[in-house]
Design a protein that fits this description.
The structure holds two protein chains of two kinds. Chain A is built from 20 helices and twelve strands. By secondary structure, chain A is of the alpha/beta class. Chain A folds into three domains: 185 residues, ABC transporter type 1, transmembrane domain (ABC transporter transmembrane region fold); 114 residues; 238 residues, P-loop containing nucleotide triphosphate hydrolases (Rossmann fold, 3-Layer(aba) Sandwich), CATH 3.40.50. In chain A, strands 6-9-10-3-11-12 form a six-stranded mixed beta sheet, sandwiched between helices. In chain A, strands 2-1-4-5 form a four-stranded antiparallel beta sheet, with helices on one face. In chain A, strand 1 and strand 2 form a beta hairpin. Chain B has 19 helices and twelve strands. Chain B starts with a helix and ends with a helix. The longest helix of chain B has 53 residues. By secondary structure, chain B is α/β, with parallel strands linked by helices. Chain B has two domains: 261 residues, ABC transporter type 1, transmembrane domain (ABC transporter transmembrane region fold); 225 residues, 3-Layer(aba) Sandwich (Rossmann fold). Helices cover 67% and strands 11% of the residues of chain B. Classes of the chains: A alpha/beta, B alpha/beta. Chains A and B meet through helix 2, helix 3, helix 4, helix 5 and helix 7 of A and helix 2, helix 3, helix 4, helix 6 and helix 7 of B.
Chain lengths: 591, 564
């Protein structure tokens, strides 16, 4: 692997139609809940509107000079309504939360399902950073919308709609007066959307950069301390943090101006309703009580209108996040070649395979290699010779630019991806301990394994001792957030997963590289055990792994230069492997 | 726990004090805003009374103009107040982020070193933001109370019983809101934890995606995620339901309060103690009061969250230092003579060893743990349980850790690379140009850079994940060599590097570090063969010492460890 990283192919985002369809699919199994939630909220809002009518009624009773006792009825009704409103609001909001949270959980599960099913080469090209940001940031944005914006928006819209009905019922001219505010509101929302969207996009980028910087600084705190880089890292955090403050404040300025303009709409609407009341009362087509109710209705609209319009940007950013999530969940499933065929033998054949990450820089050229069942092949060569690339191609992680690779005589692309993985497992340089109990980590490889089997797997790769010494045995929480394993232990864990998955063919790429030398030897023994009885292709950095292999394949600048048993290659007088071996063995006594 | 709570409160007070002027200004402006908001229903009452009821157009025009002026004040005070408050929030969170960064990076380390990076980042982002919010929540809460007060005074002027009713009723309502907020705080803590768990597991699975796919464990991983996601869903649903009922109880209480105001006001109007317009204003005011009261409830919720976040922040900030004490500095010229006497710690049992100034020494440990402990002790990342470690005769525990690390650079095998170009990672912006070339050559990074599209100026992405393991190691080695410290401790610097390259690195190291103390903690024969002397550590103490070739010949255990 020469670290060549051509232009990132980012993962797609969904179209509007795809997103709407996805939302409909999420909603479908819950339609009854959704209908109930909306009904309860409508009932609650309608009950709330009766409050103002009752207040208007009280005004009319007073204007008519009715005795104080006549007020008791309406007041008791007010109390009943308050209780009713509380109960319906609480119930309705709980229902909306249940609906939204359930849909969100479904969505995030679908997302993870789809990510897990992505072809690995696509993940490699897109980088895991994009996926991680979608599964953390975008899910959070949507969760916030679901938890706060959605119920608020639902309630506000209902209040606005029902109040408009209320105004029209009093007198259609009241509604007409109130509608004078609408043009200002529309212009305001337009003005705001044009400015707010780029601002929020900038703010998100800036907050992302800050998050990224904190992650890098905090995770690398050990290195920062050792190299005394505290000052420069603090400065980096400071600069990014100030930048995010700056973006946030720009957003706040636009937001406050937005509400300022809405204030103007409030004034225009309220004055119009009052003037309408004045005129209607003067010509006798409305009572003072009705004029009061109209004014109070409009006044009570201030808050819901502000809320609803203010949520426009929450809704927009949630929508932006949603298209990013749906973009992944709607990716076509990895193409299954139809007839599911299983390789009959644990053999690997590589025919004239070439590969290039960039067209002008071929990494492999015309590589051919046949590996017999249970044969052990060591790939050796200098850095950049193409060992990792060849390993990845054989394991089906990447597709070769040219040539054919067969497992058990069947072309890789004719095999179902799941079948490929049942036949061949690859352990790469990347070690990852999954957060959670050790048992769960191991069971990823074999879900139905009992404890005894798991322990046996650990024992086989030499991890029996330390795993038995863990504070809670197999229940010990490991990985991010739990008990920290050393690099050697993490690698042993990876090998234990291999043993448990038990594939006929295994590809190991630098699996012993990063553990430190002493760990490397522990791991070499573990690798021996893990590969026993399997066809093994091992990218060897330590030539001891080449010695123990059945065959050594020396790659140089993307070509197979030498191939044969260690003893034979090491004995060639001017062979490149022989030179490599001499360099390696120089410091070791011969024999 | 209790102490942490107290310190959390102290942190909140400090955050407010630091922005006292902004908090004051925001409170005042928001109070004006609330007053103007309260004036709107009063003016509606006046217009009903003086214009709609009487039919005089002049009064209508005058009072609509007054209403317009009120809106101007309302809007201006809101805009300026909110901006001031938000700025105070942002500044406070920014300051907290920097405090936390400083604490996390502190040279003396922290006793709670087990905290995970992800959790710490959450504290520095989410918790810092929530604590900063107090600078907006507090003024808005105070202004809302002012709004309640203004409404009450207006009511009091119309009628004493009506005003008293509001003055006495509102605090009861506020107390109820506070009482209801407490269990919500506890709920919100567990909700955040659970929600974070689903997100954390998802991110963890995505990070380990290549491993999962290499193993073919996609389906079992999906099943596992679904289980956790469902648990998380159940918890958030419980919390959301609790919050819904909390909010609606408050709504019900305010509604009942409104009904009582209407009852009393209506009776007063029916007996002509107040006018119809005053009744309208009273009802409008009681209606208006829902706003500030809800604002008080919101501020209360924010304060509850800020308290919980402040506790988490203080837990990080107040963690003890791992290597307290020792402030002495070292002279500019450090000889580089190391001496360990009777050192006891994990994997070390009464270790004595001495390394002369300028020596190139190999150190082979039979037990990995001894090697790890030793590098941690030499960099004073922690102090030994017993025994002493001296540099040029000065005990390390009397020295400032930064001074120690200026003199002794520990280059760990899993050192991180940072964002920037390859060259930036080597020079760290402080290495003189003439030292860079030799370091690049000795570590064979010159070769690495030739295989990269943009060479030395190519960016390093995702903390070096864009490089292979061997390339990463070589860049980290070049960085350590370029720093040119008086004492360099290299812990397994070339494990992911092929044999030919490793040999070149060994020779390069020997030449570049000539005359400077260098400790190679490794079991690689290529590296050990360039060391003048090798110390062999077994059972926590020196078992043998001598040239690599001699130890190979004479010590079978050494042989078995160094040679596979």
């Amino acid at each position: 692997m020469s670290g060549v990283n051509p232009g990132r192919v980012l993962l797609p985002t969904a179209t509007g139609a795809q997103t709407r369809a996805a939302v409909r699919r999420l909603l479908r199994p819950r339609w009854a809940l959704a209908v109930l939630a909306v009904a309860v909220l409508i009932a609650g809002t309608a009950i709330g509107l009766v409050t103002i009518r009752l207040l208007g009624h009280i005004v009319d009773l007073v204007v008519d000079g009715r005795p104080a006792g006549a007020l008791n009825g309406p007041v008791v009704a007010l109390v009943v309504i308050a209780v009713g409103q509380a109960v319906t609001a609480g119930w309705g909001l709980a229902l909306v939360a249940r609906l939204g949270e359930g849909m969100l959980a479904d969505l995030r599960e679908q997302f993870i399902d789809r990510v897990l099913a992505l072809p690995l080469h696509q993940v490699e090209e897109a980088g895991t950073g994009d996926l991680t940001s979608r599964v953390t940031n975008d899910v959070t944005v949507i969760a916030t919308a679901v938890r706060s914006a959605l119920p608020e928006l639902a309630r506000s819209m209902l209040t606005i709609a029902l109040t408009a009905v209320g105004l029209a019922v009093l007198d259609w001219r009241f509604l007409l007066a109130a509608l004078l505010a609408v043009p200002i509101q529309i212009l305001t929302v337009r003005w705001y959307s044009g400015r707010a969207l780029p601002l929020y996009a900038g703010q998100r980028v800036s907050v992302g950069a800050l998050q990224h910087q904190l992650q890098e600084t905090v995770s690398g705190a050990g290195t920062v301390r050792a190299l005394r880089l505290q000052d420069s890292h603090r400065e980096l955090v400071r600069a990014r943090s100030l930048d995010s403050v700056d973006w946030t404040m720009r957003g706040v300025r636009v937001l406050t101006q937005f509400y300022g303009r809405l204030n103007a709409a409030e004034f225009v609407g309220l004055s119009a309703v009052l003037v309408a009341g004045f005129l209607l009362v003067r010509d006798g087509s409305a009572t003072i009580g009705e004029a009061t109710v109209a004014a109070l209705y409009f006044h009570s609209l201030f808050a819901p209108i502000n809320t609803a319009l203010g949520l426009v940007d929450d809704a927009q950013s949630a929508a932006a996040s949603l298209v990013r999530l749906v973009g992944v969940t709607e990716l076509p499933a990895a193409g299954s070649p139809g007839a599911a065929r299983a390789p009959s033998a644990a053999t690997v054949s590589v025919e004239a395979v070439g590969h290039a990450y960039r067209p002008d820089q071929p990494v492999l050229r015309g590589v051919s290699l046949d590996v017999a069942a249970t044969e052990r092949v060591a790939l050796v060569g200098a850095s950049g010779a193409g060992k990792t690339t060849l390993a990845a191609l054989i394991a089906g992680v990447r597709r070769p630019s040219s040539g054919v690779i067969r497992l058990g005589g069947i072309r890789l692309e004719d095999l179902d991806p799941a079948e490929v993985r049942r036949s061949i497992v690859i352990i790469t340089q990347e070690v990852h301990v999954f957060a959670g109990p050790l048992r769960d980590d191991l069971r990823l490889a074999r879900p139905d394994a009992g404890d005894e089997e798991l322990l046996k797997g650990l024992d086989r790769v030499g991890a029996g001792e330390w795993s038995a010494a863990l504070p809670d045995g197999l229940d010990t929480v490991v990985g991010d957030g739990g008990h920290r394993l050393t690099v050697t232990q993490a690698q042993q864990l990876a090998l234990a997963r291999l043993v448990l998955a038990d594939p006929p063919i295994a590809v190991l790429d630098e699996a012993t590289a990063e553990a430190g030398s002493a760990g490397a030897r522990t791991l070499e023994a573990a690798v021996e055990e893990a590969l026993a009885g399997r066809t093994g292709i091992v990218v060897a950095h330590r030539l001891t792994q080449a010695v123990s292999a059945d065959r050594v394949v020396l790659l140089d600048a993307g070509r197979v230069l030498e191939s044969g048993p260690h003893a034979e290659l090491a004995a060639r007088p001017d062979g490149q492997y022989a030179a490599l071996w001499r360099a390696w063995a120089d410091h070791r006594p011969t024999g | 726990m209790r102490g942490e709570r107290l310190r959390g409160r102290a942190l909140l007070r400090r955050v407010i004090r630091r922005e006292a002027r902004s908090v004051g200004a925001t409170s005042a402006l928001s109070a004006v805003h609330q007053g103007a908001e309260a004036l709107v229903p009063i003016l509606i009452g006046v217009i009903i009374d003086r214009a709609v009821g009487t039919g005089t157009a002049v009064d209508l025009i005058i009072w609509i103009a007054v209403l317009g002026a009120t809106f101007v004040i309302l809007s201006a005070s809101f805009q300026i107040g909110t901006r001031t408050g938000e700025y105070a929030v942002e500044r406070a969170s920014h300051a907290l982020r920097l405090d936390l960064t400083s604490r996390i990076l502190h040279p003396r380390g922290a006793t709670d070193a087990g905290r995970l990076p992800g959790a710490l980042v959450n504290v520095a982002t989410g918790d810092a933001q929530r604590v900063g919010m107090i600078n907006l929540a507090l003024p808005l809460g105070l202004a809302a109370m002012c709004g309640v007060l203004i409404g009450a005074v207006a009511l009091l002027r119309m009628s004493v019983p009506l005003g008293l009713l509001v003055l006495l009723g509102a605090p009861v309502l506020l107390l109820a809101a506070h009482g209801l907020g407490l269990p919500l705080q506890r709920r919100s803590e567990s909700e955040q934890e659970h929600a974070a768990r689903a997100a954390g597991v998802a991110a963890d699975l995505v990070t380990g995606l290549r491993v999962l796919k290499g193993l073919g464990a996609e389906q079992s991983a999906a099943r596992r995620y679904r289980r956790i996601s469902r648990e998380s869903l159940a918890a958030t649903r419980r919390a959301a339901t609790a919050k819904s009922w909390h909010d609606s109880t408050l709504l019900g209480l305010t509604g009942i309060f409104l009904a009582i105001v209407a009852l009393v006001g209506g009776r007063l109007a029916a007996t002509q103690q107040i006018t119809v317009g005053e009744l309208v204003a009273a009802v409008g005011l009681a209606q208006f009061l829902l706003g500030p009261l809800a604002l008080v409830a919101w501020a209360n919720g924010e304060l509850a969250q800020a308290r919980a976040s402040a506790d988490r922040i203080t837990a990080v900030l107040s963690a003890g230092q791992r290597t307290p004490g020792g402030n002495e500095t070292l002279p500019d010229q450090v000889g580089g003579h190391l001496r360990l006497a009777a050192v006891e710690d994990a994997g070390l049992c009464g270790l004595d060893l001495e390394i002369g100034a300028g020596e190139l020494v190999g150190l082979v440990a039979a037990d990995q743990r001894s090697a790890t402990t030793l590098t941690e002790l030499l960099g004073r990342f922690r102090d030994p349980q017993a025994g002493s470690i001296e540099l040029d005769g000065r005990p390390l525990h009397t020295l400032d850790p930064t001074a120690v690390r200026t003199a002794i650079l520990i280059a760990e095998h899993d050192a991180d690379l940072f964002e920037g170009t390859l060259l930036d990672n080597v020079t760290l912006g402080r290495v003189p140009a003439d030292r860079v070339g030799p370091a690049l050559t000795a570590s064979t990074v010159d070769e690495v850079s030739r295989t990269l599209p943009d060479g030395l100026h190519g960016p390093i992405a995702e903390r070096g994940r864009s490089l292979s393991g061997g390339q990463r190691q070589r860049v980290a080695l070049a960085r350590a060599l370029a720093a040119d410290p008086p004492v360099l401790v290299l812990h397994d610097p070339s494990t992911a590097v092929d044999a030919v390259t490793e040999q070149r690195i060994a020779a390069g190291l020997r030449d570049l570090r000539h005359g400077r103390t260098t400790v190679l903690v490794t079991t690689s024969p290529s590296l050990l063969s360039v060391a003048g002397r090798v110390l062999f550590l077994a059972d926590g103490a020196i078992r043998a010492s001598g040239p690599h070739a001699e130890l190979l010949r004479e010590d079978p255990l050494y042989r078995s460890i160094v040679l596979a």
